[in-house]
């Protein structure tokens, strides 16, 4: 055992020691880059999952909604994305597409719908009201 120690000490090369130091520095640099890449990949995956959840919930403006969801899930480990999207939809429903029962434009929701397309067209032509025209166009599209 003592012979091995003296053999390694007698073959010690200062140039090899410098190369070992350079290699150790390179390994440390690569480990740092790997850590940064893993972090970026995790952030990218989270952003993809947030966008997917927002699309499933019919968000109009993905960028704005994504920023708001990211704020809600900041510091959560693991992030509760679905819960955050539901909360955002509850707090800010105008960022999401409304259900079919909620008209976005057109006749007043409590108004009685006319019985046919010609009545709608006549009313829209007579009044020139944007809501009447949109109601006619929607009825024509759905008919």
Any key phrases for this structure?
143 residues; mainly alpha; 6 helices; rod-shaped
Describe the structure in your own words.
69% of the residues lie in helices and 0% in strands. The protein is mostly helical. The longest helix has 43 residues, at 14-56. The model is unreliable at 100-112 (pLDDT under 50).
Largest beta sheet, briefly? none
* Fraction of helical residues: 55-70%
Taken in chain order, the helices and strands follow as HHHHHH
Overall 3D shape: rod-shaped
Structural class, by secondary structure, is mainly alpha
| % residues in beta strands | under 5%
The low-confidence runs, each spanning 5 or more residues with pLDDT under 50, are: 100-112
Task: Give the N-terminus to C-terminus distance in angstroms.
Answer: 95 Å
Summarize model confidence as the mean pLDDT: 81
Number of strands: 0
In short:
This protein is mainly α and 143 residues long. Helices cover 69% and strands 0% of the residues.
Can you lay out the helices and strands and say which pair or pack?
Layout: H1 2-10, H2 14-56, H3 62-73, H4 81-91, H5 117-127, H6 130-142
């Amino acid at each position: 055992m003592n012979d091995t120690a003296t053999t390694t000490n007698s073959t010690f090369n200062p140039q090899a020691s410098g190369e070992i130091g350079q290699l150790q520095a390179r390994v440390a640099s690569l480990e740092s880059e790997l850590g940064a890449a893993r972090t970026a990949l995790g952030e990218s995956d989270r952003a993809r999952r947030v966008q997917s959840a927002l699309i499933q919930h019919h968000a109009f403006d993905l960028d704005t909604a994504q920023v708001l969801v990211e704020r809600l899930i900041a510091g959560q480990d693991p992030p509760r994305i679905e819960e955050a999207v539901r909360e955002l939809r509850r707090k800010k429903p105008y960022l999401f597409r409304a259900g079919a029962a909620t008209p976005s434009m057109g006749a007043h929701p409590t108004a009685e719908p006319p019985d046919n397309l010609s009545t709608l067209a006549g009313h829209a032509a007579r009044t020139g009201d944007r809501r009447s025209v949109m109601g006619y166009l929607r009825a024509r599209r759905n008919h």
